[in-house]
Amino acid sequence: MSTVQIAFDQWLRETVEHTESVLDELLPGVDEEPSRLHEAMRYAVLGPGKRVRAALVHAAGEASLQAGSAAMAQELALDYAAAAVELIHAYSLVHDDLPCMDDDDLRRGRPTVHRRFDEALAMLAGDALQPLAFDLLAQMPIAPALVVQAVQLLARSAGSLGMAGGQAIDCASVGHDLPVEELQRMHRMKTGAMLEASVLLGGIVAGAGSTAREGLQAYAGAIGLAFQVVDDILDVTGDTATLGKTAGKDAASAKPTYVSVMGLEGSRALLEALRGQAHEALRPLGPAACRLRDLADFIVGRSR
Ligand code: GRG
Fold first, then answer.
1. Of 15, 65, 85, 139, whose CB neighbour count within 10 A is largest?
2. Which pLDDT tens digit goes with each residue over 156-175?
């Protein structure tokens, strides 16, 4: 992506378009067998998502790139890393929507993958998107030691101590009251881990030093949680058409959420505190972190 200073809205629009064309190119084509599986994988990934995770990879890369470094190779590596997190994210949404989990009909304003295809194909599409993500990381044209760090980070963030573990806690918590600390732990794992991984992957690919990595880590923790708080608020205040997924699902399924635990006002106050923490964490990175700062505001202010 261009490093010329353009307005955030335009930068985000261009980053989303760029990410979608990279994903389109890297996903297997429907002319290749098994074509129905490839069709389901493309349907799952190429729907109108916000691409927040890809944007975080690029913004963290921009914030961490060293002057005079091998920018071309790093930009290609950032493309692969951004595509990898979007593939893992897409797989998680496909599996989350299955009847054995959230049993949802609508995602990104369209029928869910198991509704559009069938359950077996939805499971397999999710299964196939995961290894493809790691294949892309393995192809990043950066130092092999950094590739290993990136692979390990994504694996751990998606695994039983990250997203999949958080989802397991979430599934087990339906109908139970959770203390706020437990709710926080679940969300840090289920939603926060992949958002954190996106930020840290950008830093790894761009060769961030220890001070920058510490700042990125603190920033990522705050926005990871903020993202979920907004999600819980929107589930109550949003409508299905704008969200592109079923509104009011959490209350209907008796899931503990920030809103159910601390109320709307308490959730909004927490959100503002997290935005402040995110901005503060970026201080050591200076003006190069402006996209990350704007992304924190975007995440807090989003309406879908
Ligand atoms: C199935 C292992 C496994 C995990 C599922 C991500 C997830 C874990 C479940 C999704 C349920 C959910 C709505 C979580 C809240 C936060 C979240 C991840 C919302 C969806 O992400 P967005 O808003 O989606 O970035 P788009 O469509 O814009 O990419």
1. 85
2. 999 999 999 999 999 998 88
